[in-house]
Amino acid sequence: MNASAHLSDDETRLLDPKQAGQASRVHRGLQEAITEGVIPPGVLLVSTDLASGYKVDLHVVAVALRGLAHNGLVYLHHRGAKVADAPSTPPIPHRSPRQARSHIELTIRRRLATRIYQPGSMLPRQRVLAKEFGVSAAAYRRAIQALVDEGFLIPSVNPRGTRVGDRLPRVETVPG
């Protein structure tokens, strides 16, 4: 997955500096709304509506949506983009509970390191992530416990969910 919290220079190379900043703002805003579940899977993001709402031109919106598509958060559509069911991850071959836990932990660790999940934001709901990985909510909670122990994730004291900590793993420290 080519995931990043920011648009690459290659994605913004045809924009002037002001437009590149606008595209980054739209990209970050939509990425946060999608990963926090504010914009649920299956929603069609209409380019003209986004351009109007963010007060930018359609070319800026197109660049932001292409960045989200590279992140696996949306599928491009002729009118805009459709929010993906879940961030793209390869299917898990469940050979053992230990292997499933390891796969889940590594996938979430990568998403944190690449800033798909931003510091201070909420992870998608446990049941959504458990379904994505094909495990029970309890198995998912066990799988992310190491990330909680390391301070990368902060469990909520109420049923609101899991918050991303301020300190995140570095990309270089996450096995590829």
Automatic annotation (TrEMBL):
Residues 98-167 form the HTH gntR-type domain. Pfam families: GntR (PF00392). InterPro entries: Tscrpt_reg_HTH_GntR (IPR000524), WH-like_DNA-bd_sf (IPR036388), WH_DNA-bd_sf (IPR036390). Keywords: DNA-binding, Transcription, Transcription regulation. PROSITE patterns: HTH_GNTR (PS50949). The keyword Transcription applies. SUPFAM superfamilies: Winged helix' DNA-binding domain (SSF46785). Residues 7-16 have a biased composition (Basic and acidic residues). The keyword Transcription regulation applies. It comes from the Bacteria. Residues 1-24 are annotated as: Disordered. This is GntR family transcriptional regulator. The lineage of its organism: Bacteria, Bacillati, Actinomycetota, Actinomycetes, Kitasatosporales.
